[in-house]
From TrEMBL:
<dbReference type="GO" id="GO:0006805">
    <property type="term" value="P:xenobiotic metabolic process"/>
</dbReference>
<keyword id="KW-0503">Monooxygenase</keyword>
<dbReference type="GO" id="GO:0020037">
    <property type="term" value="F:heme binding"/>
</dbReference>
<keyword id="KW-0408">Iron</keyword>
<dbReference type="GO" id="GO:0005506">
    <property type="term" value="F:iron ion binding"/>
</dbReference>
<protein>
    <submittedName>
        <fullName>Uncharacterized protein</fullName>
    </submittedName>
</protein>
<keyword id="KW-0479">Metal-binding</keyword>
<dbReference type="InterPro" id="IPR017972">
    <property type="entry name" value="Cyt_P450_CS"/>
</dbReference>
<dbReference type="GO" id="GO:0016712">
    <property type="term" value="F:oxidoreductase activity, acting on paired donors, with incorporation or reduction of molecular oxygen, reduced flavin or flavoprotein as one donor, and incorporation of one atom of oxygen"/>
</dbReference>
<comment type="similarity">
    <text>Belongs to the cytochrome P450 family.</text>
</comment>
<dbReference type="InterPro" id="IPR002401">
    <property type="entry name" value="Cyt_P450_E_grp-I"/>
</dbReference>
<keyword id="KW-0349">Heme</keyword>
<dbReference type="InterPro" id="IPR050182">
    <property type="entry name" value="Cytochrome_P450_fam2"/>
</dbReference>
<feature type="binding site" description="axial binding residue">
    <location>
        <position position="225"/>
    </location>
    <ligand>
        <name>heme</name>
    </ligand>
</feature>
<keyword id="KW-0560">Oxidoreductase</keyword>
<dbReference type="Pfam" id="PF00067">
    <property type="entry name" value="p450"/>
</dbReference>
<dbReference type="InterPro" id="IPR001128">
    <property type="entry name" value="Cyt_P450"/>
</dbReference>
Length: 284
């Protein structure tokens, strides 16, 4: 369906997974429509838009008054909101699942992150201002994103005009899949790439967090992830809050099926295999 969009819809709909996908898509689209209608009802056109939907509606009305909405129609609004929901929820939630799984399998790093959080912010609510002081947490999250390879082949792009890449001609209309996995797992860029080693993002001299330009989970270029800033904020706030309050441990089943869980099922988004964790409330 995604890779062969020219196939007739009735043919792709025959696949059971596509049927389920279309059903969920309809459910989310109806939900988006209701939310948009509620915003539309309460939106005061004379004030500054306070969200994406209000900004879109403002532009739509402006165009309406000067002849026609063009591509700013209602369907495009619903589909754009749907895109943001789909691209923004599964990705961040699954990265957090990976982070908690690696916490469980590596209690030494989990404890190091917790100790840093306890020393730096204690029990108060975390804010983005705390990020710069939490070196181990940043390194842990970076290593999670590297090894999880959440979107290993990024998103497919169509080549609009003939180009040459490293002497290789690429013709217009070719489908291109950037292989982010190959960068994250390149032993020349990240030694022992299959090992979970958050310390690779810590400067050995200073003991502080050191970002790597080769960590590219959000891809690169003009069409890189639009939600990167939001995703980074969500990952940091949720992860720190969870570690502040809980300790995570693998179940016996999880320990036994470790390799299978870390491999996960096939998919555009790489998720861990089904598993449960034991969650211990930390003493306040
Ligand atoms: C950890 C979380 C996330 C990861 C790893 C991730 C990764 C990616 C990747 C690899 C792409 C493809 C970029 C390309 O085409 O070259 C992408 C595109 C996109 N992402 Fe994310 N993403 C995440 C979270 C989010 C969030 C929170 C949102 C929105 C709220 C979002 C919205 C989008 C959109 C709209 C695109 C398409 C951008 C375009 O085509 O111009 N993503 N993301």
């Amino acid at each position: 369906m995604f890779f062969f969009p020219q196939l007739p819809a009735w043919l792709t709909a025959l696949a059971p997974s596509t049927g389920r996908y279309l059903q969920s898509e309809k459910w989310i689209m109806d939900h988006c429509r209701e939310k948009i209608q509620a915003i539309d009802r309460n939106y005061d056109e004379s004030s500054e838009p306070s969200c994406f939907v209000e900004a879109y509606l403002q532009e739509q009305r402006l165009r309406q008054s000067s002849g026609g909405v063009g591509s700013f129609d209602n369907l495009q609004l619903v589909r754009t909101v749907l895109d943001l929901y789909l691209a923004g929820s599964e990705t961040t939630a699954t990265t957090l699942r990976w982070a908690l799984l690696y916490c469980s399998f590596h209690p030494e790093y989990q404890e190091a992150c917790h100790a840093e959080i306890a020393a730096s912010i204690g029990l108060r609510e975390v804010s983005m201002k705390d990020k710069r002081g939490l070196h181990k947490v940043q390194a842990f999250l970076d290593e999670t994103q590297r090894i999880a390879n959440l979107v290993p082949m990024s998103v497919e792009h169509r080549v609009s005009e003939a180009v040459e890449l490293d002497g290789l001609p690429i013709s217009p209309d070719s489908l291109v899949l950037p292989n982010l996995y190959s960068v994250h797992m390149d032993p020349e860029l990240f030694s022992e790439p299959h090992e979970f080693k958050p310390d690779r993002f810590i400067d050995p001299e200073t003991g502080t967090y050191k970002a790597s330009e080769y960590l590219i989970p959000f891809s690169l270029g003009k069409r890189a992830c639009l939600g990167e800033t939001l995703a980074r904020m969500e990952l940091f706030i949720f992860f720190v809050t969870l570690l502040q309050k809980f300790r995570f441990e693998p179940t016996e089943d999880c320990r036994l099926r470790r390799d299978e869980i870390l491999l996960g099922p096939d998919g555009v988004v790489r998720a861990p295999g089904d598993h449960s964790l034991v969650v211990h409330k930390r003493r306040l």
